[in-house]
Design a protein that fits this description.
Largest sheet: 4 strands, antiparallel
Number of domains: 1
Strand order of the largest sheet: 1-2-3-6
Number of strands: 6
Distance between the termini: 43 Å
Number of helices: 4
Strand content: 15-25%
Structural class: alpha+beta
Length: about 160
């Protein structure tokens, strides 16, 4: 796929939209090259801590579901790390640690125009759920929400 290309999977509400995210959530960036390196190093440190806790929870015989949630978070973090370290190198546009994270999942559930009576927004076009994200982000989100929903008492024992 080329940058900006879209494949409509199911009508206009599930679209594969190829984009590259140079920063963190919602494309936020800071600090140029040094900021990108620091972000990648932060991701590596965070994933290392998650792996440490995962090994610890397996040894302490936490429920399998809790370990699965933690594994989802770890796998998502590693996926984003791989993109940010190697993607630019593989496609020859950036050195090691300067790559972008590929985002493709796009769910513009509702779109339209704000009613004219809304001050400041009246008549403007909107899309509900505009973010484009990837499977790594999905894995992290599902892991975190499942852990909070089903295993909050085990988080206290962490």
């Amino acid at each position: 796929m080329y940058l900006g290309e879209e494949i409509h999977i199911s009508g206009n509400w599930f679209i594969l939209h190829f984009t590259e995210n140079n920063g963190i959530a919602f494309g936020l960036q800071f600090g140029g090259v040094i900021g990108k390196i620091l972000l990648t190093l932060f991701r590596i440190v965070a994933a290392s801590f998650i792996l440490f806790f995962l090994i610890r929870t397996i040894k302490k015989e936490y429920p399998n579901g809790f370990n699965f949630c933690l594994s989802l978070i770890f796998a998502g973090a590693v996926g984003n790390i791989i993109d940010s370290i190697f993607y630019g190198l593989i496609f020859n546009y950036a050195p090691l640690f300067q790559g972008r994270v590929v985002d493709m999942l796009y769910f513009p559930i509702v779109s339209g125009h704000y009613p004219s009576w809304i001050p400041g927004l009246g008549g403007d076009y909107f899309i509900f759920f505009r973010p484009v994200f990837n499977l790594s982000d999905t894995s992290i989100t599902i892991g975190v929400f499942s852990m909070l929903l089903f295993y909050s008492k085990w988080l206290k024992k962490f």
